[in-house]
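Handout, section 4.2: multi-component inputs.
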Amino acid sequence: MKCAEFSELAGYQQGDEMEAATLMAFHQHRDNCAECARLFEATLALDESLRRELLRETPDPAALLGRVRTRIQQDTRAPLRWLPIAAAALLTLGAGAAWRITRPMNNPLISAAVRDHNLEVKANSPRRWRLSIPAMQSLLEQYEVGWSDVQALLPVGFILERAKECRIDGQPALHLVFTDGSRAVSVFFRGATEMPVTPQVAVDGTEAAGFRRGKLYGLVVTSGAPGLCAEAVRRLTSM
Amino acid sequence: MGKQQSQFEALIFPHAAALLRFGRRLCGSHALAEDLVQDALLRAWRAADALPGVANPRAWVFRILLNTWYSEGRRRSARPVEASLHHARNHHARSLAEPPREVMSDVQEALGLLPEDQRTVILLAVVEGFTSREIAEILEIPAGTVISRLSRARAAMRDHVSGNLHKTGVGSR
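Output:
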């Protein structure tokens, strides 16, 4: 066996089936080639370090599984035999709606923000939101958004209801939801990450616009409340 | 709770912690990993009719998680994770859950520097313990490709770690 072949076989996982003859040749090469033996030992040590460090992370999935269970139970309330028909109908309607929404909003940032707003605010898809003020404040600090910034909508009766991290066009972003009890405004911040400031677009009652205030870049999305998006942008940029 | 749901929970829910751990390395933060895993589990539930015929439910749900990640990635951005993490760090938009760079070990740093395809196979192999054949099924690529990606990933990590050891003078005698 040559060193290149040994190196290739060293990529096999424990538990992979290696033929007996190949395994024997592998061990013989290791015993006779000091350099390959050294690299192999270094690889084993590296694997062990990686395994030990990452397996130390033991995330608790209890809350997540609770949300998934709730969603499954909601899904199963409808008789299962109607599910394929209902899914097909929803798919057709959804595709139509998505086409209508995304076609004019072909800006990827706006599309991503509108999609998150529709999924997480309008459809209220279960998510782990930060609801307490200290938890929301720590997220705001991460994105360099001041507490005073989020009070911009206070004069028109909106309070900050919840916050979470999300991704907008592949970048981490902060999603804030403001409400006045009947209407909701989504504001997405990407901190000082530059992005084009998109003028307002409106499709099927959903309005979205980008804004910039100093170093802070953001996007506003509203639905079912004509004029609210422009008002929110005006207030957020005039703080 | 129906029989199908009980079966689904018994077979899939025990892997949630591993999915979260793996998802976090894909997304770069716990919060984003939670969304990803949740979406993947709901996708898996919608495909639960196929579960009785699945020989390896753990590999099956990891495959769904990766497909969810790829489809989300395609919808949201084609940018690699490294770029977004680097970008996020530079702009103080780093997740609270992510360990600060200064406390990352050499091994974790080396892992973060790998291209996504290599990082994915090494996490599945070394941390999650899948065989090359299982990884090939999860990623829907030939087993030979898995092995060559593993070899390249390990060589790159080894070089990075040994380079850092030499820089600090450890093992330089």
